[in-house]
Amino acid sequence: MSKLAKEPKPDWIRIKLTTGDNYQEIKEMMRSKTLHTVCEEARCPNIYECWANRTATFMILGDICTRACRFCAVNTGMPTELDLQEPERVAEAAEKMGLRHCVVTSVARDDLKDGGATIFAETVRAIRARMPLCSVEVLIPDFLGNEESLRIVMDAKPDILNHNIETVERLSDRVRAKAKYRRSLELLQRAKRMQPDIPTKSSIMLGVGEEWAEILQAMDDLRAVDCDILTIGQYLQPSPQHLTVEKYYRPEQFAELKEEGMKRGFSHVESGPLVRSSYHAHEQVKSAKSHQAAVPAEI
C-alpha cells in the first residue's frame, strides 16, 4: 500500500518556475530530435531553472529502464529501443544549445551485453568531435559490475565519471533495484585505477530513513575509493507508489553536511534540499580540475 510523507513539505522546498524562451526552445529541440532528458523523465525539481539557463542532462538508450528503483520516476519495463544514431543527435543538440559542459546519463539497460557502454562512449566522442572545448560528464549505471563495460566508457575519457550510491549502505537494497552499495564503490574505485586523472563523482539523497552517522560513513566510504565530488539532496516522493519521505532536512543541516564533506577531502560538495546529481555540474568540473592541479604528485 502506498503512503505519503510522514510530515508536510516544508516551505524551503520551493521550485523556481521559469518557462521563458530558453525553456521552450530546449523543450522543442529535444522533441524534434527525439531525445530524452532525465530532467523530464525523473521529474527533476530544477528543470525550470536549468533549462532557462540552457543546461540539460541528456538521457540516452531510451526512456524505459530495466530496473524499478523505489525512489525513481523513470518508466520501467523491457526496452525495445537501441538507436545507433543517438550519439550524433545528442551532439547536434549540445552544439545547438552552445553548451560548455554536457551531462549524459541513461536508463539501466541490463538487457544489453555491455549495458549500453558503447553508446555512452560514442556519445562522448561525438560531442567532442563537434565541440572540442565542451567538457563531458557521464552518469552511468553499474553495468552489473562488468569491468569491461566500465573500461569502454573510461577509454572515451569523459571529463567526469559519475555513479551514484544514492543512499547509505543499510538502506541500499530497499531503495535500489539490483544495484549493490559495495559494487557501486568498487565501480568508482576501478574508474580511478583505469584513469587516475578523471575526477569521479557520486550522490546521496536524504530522507529515506538514514541516520546522521550513516551519512558520514557513506562519505568516508566514498573518500576511501578516492571519489572527488559529492552531491547531497533531499528525496522527494514522485508518486504515492514510491518510497515515503521519512524526514525533510533543514537547509542548515545540508550546510553542515557540506562542511563535513569538505573536511573529508572532497574537491567539491554540492549540498541542499533541491540539489540533484547534475545540479551546477559545470561548476563541479572546475573545482575538481583545480583541486587536482593543487595536489602535489606522489613521488
General description of the model:
It is a single chain. This protein has 299 residues and is α/β, with parallel strands linked by helices. Helices cover 38% and strands 14% of the residues. It is built from eleven helices and ten strands. Helix 4 runs parallel beside helix 5 and helix 5 packs parallel to helix 6. 44% of the residues are buried.
H/E element sequence: HEHHEEEHEHEHEHHEHEHEH
Binned strand content:
5-15%
Trace the largest sheet across and list its strands. Answer: 1-2-5-6-7-8-9-10
**Biggest sheet details:** 8 strands, mixed
Unreliable segments (pLDDT under 50, ≥5 consecutive)?
none
Mean pLDDT: 84
- Kindly name the structural category: alpha/beta
**Quick one: overall form?**
globular
Total beta-strand segments: 10
First-to-last CA distance: 58 Å
Alpha carbon gyration radius? 18 Å
What share of residues is helical?
Answer: 25-40%
Number of helices: 11
